[in-house]
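Field reference: sequence -> structure
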Amino acid sequence: MARTPLSGIQHSLRSGDYEAIISSVGATLRSLTLAGRDLVVPFDADEVRPSYRGATLAPWPNRVVDGTYTFGGEERRLALTEPARGHALHGLAAWLDYEAIDKGSDHVTLAQVIPAQTGYPWRIVVTTTFVLGPDGLTQTVTARNDGDEAAPWGTGPHPYLVAGAGTVDDWTLELPAAQVLAVTEDRLIPTSLESVDVDADRFDFRRKRTIGAVEIDHAYTALTRDEDGIAAVRLTDAAGHGVQMSWDAACPWVQIHTADKPRPEDSRLGLAVEPMTCAPDAFNADRYDFDAGLIVIEPGAEASASWTIAAIV
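Structure field:
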């Protein structure tokens, strides 16, 4: 019997010149290519997934500050999975091993249960479908509350997009967002919602421009959308080729991270673009004077969100 790779069972999808590989651990997008060109930073199948690369985040994306929150009148305490900053990071599902419940040559549907547990005492069934087509790879995440009490919820993906050769510094970004969430420098705790004009050289990419040396690890909102309600981030190289990520109104926020790492050889290899159904620390929404977008799923109800990654050719 063949040994299962460290990143789980591999699900290979193909449609035309597009190819994608989904790993079962974390319902993770391990690679996505068009005619052999990387659209996301990949990793090896027999490798522990680095830096949440491509993971599906649930039942919250981003951070719960100090791992504590109050919901339904009770204070909850989560495990601190970002020990360097002292937060609960990226939910509870990123290391769960999902089961395939439907699969074809161009699609796969994975499912897993987030069991009721200390800090999050609700049973949530997460189902996610990846569909590869001529317009790229679309992922849809659906949560169903199988408990008898309302549950807080949020989700989002964590791909690192690749425009072409070089690093983040070399690529051009178009990000149609008018507001950015200010955070503390050391622990990235949200403080206030600001216009991107507060530091335009760092944060304002409403008109496409080269990223250069700026360092970003911030959530954006007030997104400009097309007539169908779709927002899109475009990342291109000097020749105009690259990758686009788009999403609908289910995700009013997007986290952008220039992937700065301590080791130069690991740093700024891709741009993390993470559409989110809610703001960072949304489980503590009552602390802030902006709409954090926390979703509350009633017993037996569902909530869904989707996004698409496609090549720019």
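Note: Residues 200-203 form the longest helix (4 residues).
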